[in-house]
């Protein structure tokens, strides 16, 4: 049964900030995609050379296009930092067929993008002030691989810091909607799907799962690698997100930082089974295997 949870007023007010920030960040990404699509319609292949079209170099070039500059060599000279080494490729990518229609839309999109960035900055400053009483909890959550400051603040804002509301980590996972499915048929447990829950936190935990999966030499990285081979990368990221939430439950409950179990945790749990497996594989390859325990 899904746990019910009504956070206290300070947490309910706090959670509005990261939720609004998430919406604005998605809008900013959409505006960046619109810029790219508009440039492609004008035969500008900026994406092939510039990683971030709305970065310092990209904005300087776009502002010059809006101002009426059309010479690719002049536009390429506006590149900054390491991008200046690619000025020849940049000039080739800026061979444009830009019209007044393109410049009008480009100016509007950039203005909206700058407005969104300003609003996100104000939200970040407000978030930093409001969440200051929970600074220790945020710092402890950031010790989990894959969890950055934004994710840690979202965890605190969505579930609070009082874990007595949840009898166990499983109840918290059920409330979020990221717990493993429970489907049985003929007495045999089958693969199930996750249920509905807190979509803000669930989405963030899956993103953290992707990040933790890239953390080498960690328990979460080993879990992701182990599951992705059998279940696929998406389900592996979901499972790692569930593990992050379970770890967050105990971190918030006990007020301690994350303690990694190590990348060899699963090997230590099933050492005999793994030994039999590799001995069998070596025998299949024509080797005679003798096992001697290490001193």
Please describe what this structure looks like.
With 295 residues, this protein is mostly helical. The protein folds into 3 domains: 9-130; 134-263, no CATH class; 267-295, no CATH class. Helices cover 62% and strands 2% of the residues. It is built from 13 helices and 2 strands. The protein has a two-stranded antiparallel ribbon with strand order 1-2. A hairpin with a 2-residue loop joins β1 and β2 (188-190). The longest helix has 33 residues, at 9-41. The two termini are 50 Å apart. The model has no long low-confidence stretch (mean pLDDT 88).
| Low-pLDDT residue intervals, each spanning 5 or more residues | none
Mass-distribution shape: flat
The fraction of residues assigned to DSSP E strands is: under 5%
Sequence of secondary-structure elements: HHHHHHHHEEHHHHH
For the biggest sheet, the summary is: 2 strands, antiparallel
Q: Kindly, what is the distance between the CA atoms of the first and last residues, rounded to a whole number of angstroms?
A: 50 Å
The percent of residues in helical segments reads 55-70%
Tally of DSSP helical segments: 13
Question: What are the defining features of this structure?
Answer:
single chain, 3 domains, 13 helices, two-stranded antiparallel sheet, 295 residues
